[in-house]
Amino acid sequence: MLELIDITKVYKGGKRAVDGMTMHLNPGMLGLLGPNGAGKSSLMRIVSTVTKPTSGQVRYEGTDVVANPDRLRRELGYLPQDFGVYPNLTSREFLSYLAAAKGLSARSARARIDELIQLVNLTEAVKRPLGKYSGGMLRRVGIAQALLADPKVIVVDEPTAGLDPEERVRFRNLLSDLAADRVVMLSTHIVSDVESVASDIAVVAQGRLLRRGAPDELLREIDGQVWEVMVAPAEVPAVQARHVVSRMVRTANGVRLRLLAPVPPTQDAVRVSPDLEDAYLGIIHRPAERTPAEQQAMRW
Amino acid sequence: MVNARVLAGLAVGDFRDRVRRPAYAVTLLAAIGLGYLAVPNVNSTWVIMDVGGNRGVYNSAYVGVVTALAGALWLTFGGFSVVRSGIARDETSRVGQILAATPLRTSGYLFAKFLSNLLVLASMTGVLAVTALVMQLARGENRSVDPVALVEPFVLLSLPLMALTAAAAILFETVPLLRAGFGNVVWFVLALVISVGGQSGSAPFGGLGVHQVAQSLNAAMGNQHLQSAAGGFSLGLTKVSKPLGTFLWDGFDPSGGFVLGRVVLVLLACAVALLPTLWFGRFDPARAAGSLVPAKAAADGEPAPAAADPFGTAGPEPAPAATWSTAPGELPQTAPTRAGAFGRLLVGEVRILLQGVSPWWWAVAGALTVAGFALPMETVTGMLLPGVWLWPVLIWSRLGSQQVENGLEVLLGAYPSARRRLLAEWASGLVLTAVMGVAPLVRMLVAGDGPGVVCWFGGVLVIPSLAMSLGVLSRTHRVFQAIYLPIWYILVNNVAALDFMGAVRVNGKPVGPSPLLIMALSAAMLAVVFLVGSARRNVKG
Question: What global pTM score does this model have?
Fold first, then answer.
């Protein structure tokens, strides 16, 4: 349905944000995971037709959308990471304008706006100008605009920023519902945003696709390599230098570390079940697939 | 502890940020164009400085002084718009809140902003000085370069005025009423007063310094036994009946009192810049009578970004709204259908263009319209028409830049039919222009004033086209304000060459450029809008 073929984006000054990425997407949710600066937002903007790739193709149902972006734009819902609004318009006025920009008929625009305002529960605030909305409310307006034209492709970039925990859960559920018969591409650096809802996860770093698979597949790769150890506080830096540490809790008896290692890191290390965060860190920091310069760049 | 190094660091950082903005480049190009106009071809009848029908031979001293004076006047108007957003930008970018949490004192912050403003204007003055040198060599009347004589007028005449302009920008930004576009209009009037009154010999602290220069020029003419024609000395773009005669002028020797007056002007500017220390709220929403940004929107509709704010720091907490539910089955059930939506798009653009306009604005617009039906015909075409096509200047200035200034560029970048949206935005400006001018149109139709009606249509087309093209090119509303106001001022001073609306009349007939030319110009500007829009989409990112 949506194909990204050897996409590369090089910005002025030579920064290579996306480096030869190829992906094929069908209905379902793809969670795009990666650290800050991995190229996720650049890729999302390319898929959303906002940015043109330096090379490569984006094809939607066979159409080259780099050359003919309106084909995808008519069936696309895009929620960027940061966006502004016209502060003196109400949410209904703002959505009406965007519906007209999408080319929706007056009748269907009116009905869908009513339904969407209800969906994101902004009915009580509908007469208030957007300039008086909170960050979370504006994010909900963003979600509503993305669903205006009943899109077949939904691209959401770091969508849960500004949402409280309850809203975050509900938004993830909404995306999960939408993904039943649509392509949903969700970009985030928060693993918990994708682990409960994405059927397909792509891990990217430094503009490259490092791994793609179902959550179970990613977890299987790291099974048997996640450990918990208790160490004295003074030993923590040495352990961190040797291993990827995913969690650290200070207790009265010392510091309990959860870390990745192919073999038991200490004699009293306890093997634990991996979770998606472990798998993500394992992929990001796996030495075999990175050059020494890249490994250095990935350390934090 | 704030020392000179910290202030310089702040000022230079701010300066770098500003000079990388398109508005700086546009103003700089205009300044270079002015430098070109200031030293016209020997046969030109368009002049900036006229000394009783004469001008100086184009040596370093004369070219320096004429370019410095012309540049000072231009930068007082246009430069003000470029430098006046420094504090508001710190608020929208939230850099202000970071700075407010440092030991930096309010006075230090304001002074650094003043220095940054001055650096921006001084850099433009520097470019003008280089332009003057190039023009002296290009005109070739006297190719002997005297660097001191060339640069001295820029230091003594331009810089004190730039300091005042830089300080006024700080003052205006900290006063709620003057913070937005209304402040631009107030400054335009104030700058006019300074430009005219400052040329007087009795102006305080030597005024613009023009009087001393004019005395020296007249003395040189006297020494060369040249008669000064009626009108004496004039500064400003004017058309003369025949090319000016020439005389030799080697510059003027500024007296100690004159130099002291210039120094006092700079010190006065420093005091004006520091005055807001008494009330500046240090970006504390609780202390401000409304933060800088929303106040802008409320005052006269300058764009006020209300971006999705993950930090929730954009001022007082909004009233709580319930969270939302996504239980299965609540997704919208209505299937979207597509139909021609240009009409609704236009309605949306009109709504966006007019968002936040105060009832007072509408009241004045209504009064102007009523007056258009009541006043005598000559008054309607000669005074009211220019008036009704000045009143919406702050609203027109949003055209072409409101998407960028409201942070919607990325979101709308994924929407279809970008050209249709541009067209609708332009059409919204056209609707506003036409509605504002409806009374003069009806009067001209009733009076059978065919040429006036045709000129009216030229005006309706050219104003939104100019606003759109400048907005799209510069990505800010200020450039249109800085360019339209001087054009309008020249027009109402009966300069027919710039009369795009048919207001300058001889024997009741418009004598400005052909309406066909105006319409062709509008079409060209509209073409620029589409070309730039398309080019931006192609290279975006």
Answer: 0.74
pLDDT tens digits, residue range B324-373?
A: 554 544 788 888 888 878 999 999 999 999 998 888 889 999 999 999 99
pLDDT digits (tens, 9 = 90+) for A98-137: 999 999 999 999 999 999 999 888 999 999 999 999 888 9
Chain A touched by B326 (CB under 8 Å): yes
Q: Do B323 and A107 touch (CB under 8 A)?
A: no
**Cα(A75)–Cα(A68) distance, integer angstroms:** 13
* A55-60: strand order across its sheet: A16-25, A2-10, A55-60, A63-64
CA distance B463 to chain A (A): 23
Categorize the per-residue pLDDT at B404 as very low, low, confident or very high, splitting at 50, 70 and 90. very high
Interface check for B294 against chain A (CB to CB < 8 A): the answer is: yes
pLDDT tens per residue, range A6-45: 999 999 888 899 999 999 999 999 999 998 889 999 999 9
Task: Tell me the angle at which helices B22-38 and B60-74 cross, rounded to the nearest 10 degrees.
Answer: 140
Looking at the partner chain, which of A52, A111, A122 has a beta carbon nearest the beta carbon of B541? A52
Determine contact: A230 vs chain B, CB below 8 A: no
Inform me whether the C-beta atom of residue B324 falls under 8 Å from chain A C-beta atoms: yes
CA distance A103 to chain B (A): 5
Tokens 């331009």 -> residue: B158
B27: Cα within 13 Å, side-chain hemisphere: 33
Q: Please list the residues that pair with B509 across neighbouring strands.
A: B506
Nearest CB to A82 within list B307, B331, B415: B307
How far apart are the CA of B277 and the nearest CA of chain A, in angstroms? 29
CB-nearest partner of B306 from A85, A98, A116: A85
Find how far residue B466's CA is from the centre of its chain.
13
B407 with A130: Cβ contact below 8 A? no
d(CA A83, CA B406): 9
User: Range with the lowest mean pLDDT among B95-104, B142-151, B171-180?
Assistant: B95-104
CA-nearest of A210, A146, A194 to A28 is A194
Write out chain B residues lying below 8 Å of A48, CB-based: 413-414
Q: How far is CA B155 from CA B129, B166, B276, B282, in A?
A: 10, 15, 27, 33
Closest Cβ–Cβ partner in B325, B408, B417 for A170 = B325
How confident is the model over A164-203, as pLDDT tens digits?
Answer: 888 888 888 888 889 988 999 999 888 888 887 888 999 9
User: What is the DSSP track for B194-240?
Assistant: HHHHTTSTTSGGGTTSHHHHHHHHHHHHHHTT-PPPTT-EEEEEEE-
